[in-house]
Amino acid sequence: MQIIEPEDLWPTAPEVLSTLEEAVRMAEEIAAPPAERWIAKRISDKLIPSLYNARTYLEIGQLQSPEIRLNILKARLEAGELANADARYAPLYSKVRVLAEEAELATKMT
Fold first, then answer.
1. Which alpha helices (DSSP H) does the chain contain, by range?
2. Residue 35, CB half-sphere, CA atoms under 13 Å: how many?
3. Which of 2, 26, 79, 108 sits CB 3.0–4.6 Å from 93 for a disulfide?
């Protein structure tokens, strides 16, 4: 039986990128009509651009770049504010939080 070290279970850049894409899809679905206008605007003007900025660095393998953590943090703050305003947005906040954790773990692997 092969022993798997905990470090081998940590996410890699492609896995983090996949989670990021899931978060973007979730945000886009939430922002689609009949969403309230202010929700759609915050998601499309702040949350999604922050995730795309983080994606840029993930795609080129710059896992140590502080821009990844900074932009995911911005998205997490936006999602948190939305979740505080209405519990319907809590799943989006959870997804972005998971993304932040995965990104942090992936940086330890490099």
1. 13-31, 37-42, 48-59, 66-85, 90-109
2. 20
3. 79
Q: Which residues contact 11 (CB under 8 A, 6 or more apart)?
A: 19, 102, 105, 106
In which residue are the tokens 């906040």 written? 93
The answer to whether 69 touches 103, Cβ cutoff 8 Å, is yes
**CB within 8 A of 44, min separation 6: which ones?**
31
- The model's pLDDT over 44-59, given as tens digits with 9 standing for 90+, comes to 999 999 999 999 999 9
For residue 19, give the nearest of 102, 108, 79, 110 by alpha carbon.
Answer: 102
Question: At a CB cut-off of 8 Å and minimum separation 6, what does 74 contact?
Answer: 46, 47, 50
- Is residue 32 scored above 90 in pLDDT? yes
Instruction: Note the pTM of the prediction, 2 decimals.
Output: 0.87
